[in-house]
Amino acid sequence: MASVILGILLVLAPLPLSTEAQTRGNLTLGSSLTANDRNSSWLSPLGEFAFGFRRMGRGAHLLAIWFKKIEDKTIVWSANGDNLAPEGSKVQLTANGGLVLTDPRERELWSSGLNGTGLAYAAMLDTGNFILASASHVKLWDSFSRPTDTILPTQQLNLGAALTARYSEMNYSTGRFNFKLGYDGNLVFYVAPPQTVPTDAYWASDTVDSGFHLIFNQSGQVYLMDRNGTILNRITSELVPTSGYYQRAILEYNGVFIQYIHPKTANSSSGRLIGWSRVSVPVPENICRSIVQHLGSGACGFNSYCTLGDDLRPRCQCPPGYTPLDSANEMNGCIQDFVPQSCNGSRPETDQFVLREMLATDWPVSVYEQSSGQTEDWCREACLADCFCTAALFKNGNCWKKNYPLSNGRMGPWEDGKALIKVRIHDTTSKCTKNDQKKNKNTTLMIIGSVLLSCSVFVNLLLLITYLIYRSFRSRDSKLSPLVQINQVTGMRTFTYQELQEATYGFKEELGRGAFGTVYKGALGSEDADFVAVKVLATRTGESEKEFEREVSAISQTNHKNLVLLLGFCNEGQHRLLVYEFMSNGTLADFLFGASRPSWYRRTEIACDVARGLSYLHQDCTRHIIHCDIKPQNILLDDSLTAKISDLGLAKLLMANQTRTTTGVRGTRGYLAPEWFRNMPISSKVDVYSFGILLVELICCRKNYKPEVEIEAQIVLVDWACDCYHNRSVPKLVESDEEASSDIKRVRRFVMTALWCIQEDPALRPTMKKITQMLEGAVEVPIPPVPSSFMSSI
């Protein structure tokens, strides 16, 4: 009789409860998991899937389901992407609420929302579905019915169900894209600006009044079916291998829907697991053309443009004169990195701007004026003379003026116009950051106040002093205690040893240690989120003393988004400590060489972040700085995975007119330029060399020197990279990385750039500014010569 009942349940339920799952995977009421370093989880009977907490950075956890047996532990469902759980949070199976997630203070963060429904147990199934069921095995709640951005084989979506893309590749909060099987039976893909109702559809199945279920069957096909079981629309129709493979289909953060497979066992020849492989054409095939929003930015963010990679995924880039608004999310748009043209009638600034050409490019919506029967020269002059003109499009005698912000940008062979982007000629000296704008605003307010109170000399003097103190405090993190002192020599904030001892809870949580000291986690102020990193330097002797003076002096003069911010210091007796901003995602070494491989896109972003930071140190600081110890351990990642250079303690300061210095060997073996060992003058080119080693490590996602590698030619990574380039076999460097392999042109460009960086002759190495342009594709990378030796630096 029991088998008959179970058979009926298998017919009625879209996702069956196997007997094995009931006997081996059941979780009783009261079962719980705690978010901590162990990342404990509940496994499916065969260990295929896990349910539990995944660390999203220091002190932040995502309640999720993931593939347990593959290397990258790919997440397929999550509960609290918009509200990450702090350390010590707990998820518990309760009779009154079902599955409930609470923080350490027992405040509810998320719940399955079951009340008084006869819940008896939960189970993680080998299908990837997490279920809550009654004692009679009736399914009361399951993750398959509440998907996030991914669907799995045997899963079906009913009328009203939807998928929502995540915010970015590493951020599981709600993103801009979603698709929904409407109650009218039509499957529609939408782009939704934040906090608005989605109104812009960019793909539809055209199955109004007929669509009923979206099915992902065990054969690897995703299709729309009507009530009678007839297939109406095949979303992914390719034949895919299913035996021995995991499968998933995902609405990616860039808005395209793609199906993937992953082998369940290691490759017999390499012994390594091959990553996810795409097995379907993205839907839609050209999202750059599919999305046109009259209210919104389009496929990419404002002031950016969309191109299609070889894998048909969208790539969002910034036009000349613009930089990404958020380096952690390429789809978040770009901002001008120069002061825009003034509309002051007395100073039109026409001669201060030029127009940069971009072929096959358009921003079709941002038009405010059109002229026909004109020449390109006329179009150029008209835009330059018009302070409202941000860019112009010229095509077949037509000139369209476009205003700020630019929207719906796209570049590709389907576009036959020429975009002309207005940029300031001397943009390197005319940049205006948000902080600058705030300072200008504050200055204006103070001047007005001074005039209004001019009747009192004393009040004006007091106002001026207050403003100077305010500016000094605003120049560093505003979260610091207002009781700290300002050092008259360095201009930095000073702390007492007791303050920092209390902030670190007695130097309890160690973040890392190096040759000159140990770094601890601390908190300033009453909020737990006000974290800092406190570096306790070694005793006041010898080189350590010099390092302290160099670090405070050097870092206090820097201000760049790709440099770790020094907030203050303590110099009290034998106690010398440095207080830095807290970097929640640790070092690049841990990120790059850990168990899971970071995406190719994230690695390219990190490479550009480090290059920009070094370019600033070498050329844009008031006093030029050589870092002298560039390596993955000295690159830190913040909560959005933006890379920042840390530990300037070994830096040699250079005056603006000084290019070389002589010093003893500094830095870390394996990243040192040859001139360190030859008693040669040291220049910023030593950092260029170290960056070249780091760049090859980012490309290949492995350490430069790996003696345990079986193939001798691959032990020294840069040697192997050089051989691969000159043997025209660059794809071998990334053959196990599908994402990088599909972007092989950029891989080759990065490899060529790295080979220029590690030239033995410092004069042959480019500047970091030129390297940044090479990486970004702004300039062509010439063919590099063969470096004569790498082994000397190991």
Automatic annotation (TrEMBL):
Gene Ontology terms: cellular component: membrane
Pfam families: B_lectin (PF01453), Pkinase (PF00069)
Signal sequence, renumbered to the chain: 1-21
The keyword Cytoplasm is annotated on this UniProt entry: no
One GO MF term attached to the UniProt entry: carbohydrate binding
Binding site for ATP: K535
Domain Protein kinase, chain residue ranges per copy: 505-779
UniProt-listed Enzyme Commission number(s): 2.7.11.1
Family listed: Belongs to the protein kinase superfamily. Ser/Thr protein kinase family.
Designated name of the protein: Receptor-like serine/threonine-protein kinase
Lineage per the UniProt record: Eukaryota, Viridiplantae, Streptophyta, Embryophyta, Tracheophyta
